[in-house]
Design goal:
The chain is built from seven helices and eight strands. By secondary structure, it is an alpha+beta fold. The protein starts with a helix and ends in a 15-residue tail after the last strand.
Length: 235
């Protein structure tokens, strides 16, 4: 049997992830949830507190609880899209969607992502251009069970990474940075030589144990660098 606390948590989480409730939307007040779920106010408060700890809602005294804007500062390396990074550095950015298909995960990818085989995904390939030169190839998978509204999004005016950061909450992220050599296709798209050194960022994000997106972003080695400033933890 699922506890009432878990039902409240899951129902609200599902409405946020599905897009029924968007960032800034007010969720039902406590006494409305008490009536709807026929439970104590303490149970409702516990569920809302857990959602707030996950960063999914913001609780404000006297005004209620609201769907939180997605956070980008929960990991050592900030999750930030390429367009924002370029603009903050004073560069001109544009992008092109090279491929967009709805597919089902094969067994190998499903195992790699720890997701069910045949799960439906939106597969995207995007080229980022900074100051007129190809700067990155973005190869992305978006899990449609976690982000169903991505199915209808054309990404004509906003890059996939930026759209996801603005629309979809996440609770966990993993980064892998590695050096790779440009294969024939990558070299052609990035206008470099086959075998040239590139920097690759692999990122996977989750919400409550469910994959939201998996992306591989490949940059020409001579046109990009990863940098960060860190401070020791205060004692």
């Amino acid at each position: 049997m699922v506890s009432i606390y878990q039902r409240i948590f899951t129902d609200i989480e599902t409405k946020i992830i599905s897009g029924d409730w968007r960032p800034g939307d007010r969720i039902p007040v406590e006494h409305e949830l008490v009536t709807e779920y026929r439970c104590s106010r303490m149970t409702v408060s516990k569920a809302l507190s857990a959602l707030a700890e996950r960063g999914m809602i913001v609780r404000r005294r006297k005004t209620g609880s609201f769907v939180a804007s997605p956070q980008i500062d929960r990991t050592v390396m900030d999750i930030q899209d390429i367009s924002t990074e370029a603009e903050l550095a004073g560069h001109e950015h544009r992008f092109e969607i090279l491929a967009r298909t709805v597919e089902r995960l094969g067994e190998a990818e499903a195992q790699q992502l720890s997701e069910p085989p045949d799960a439906e995904v939106l597969r995207l390939q995007c080229l980022h251009i900074v100051d007129g030169r190809p700067n990155a190839i973005e190869r992305r998978i978006i899990m449609l069970d976690a982000v169903p509204r991505a199915r209808e999004e054309s990404f004509a005016s906003i890059p996939p990474g930026k759209w996801l950061l603005e629309q979809v909450p996440w609770s966990k992220a993993k980064h892998v940075i590695r050096a790779v050599s440009a294969d024939t296709v990558t070299a052609r798209i990035l206008q470099t030589e086959r075998g040239e050194a590139c920097l690759s960022l692999i990122r996977q994000t989750w919400q409550n144990g469910r994959t939201v997106t998996y992306v591989e972003i490949t940059h020409p080695g001579d046109r990009f660098q990863f940098a960060g400033t860190f401070h020791p933890t205060a004692i």
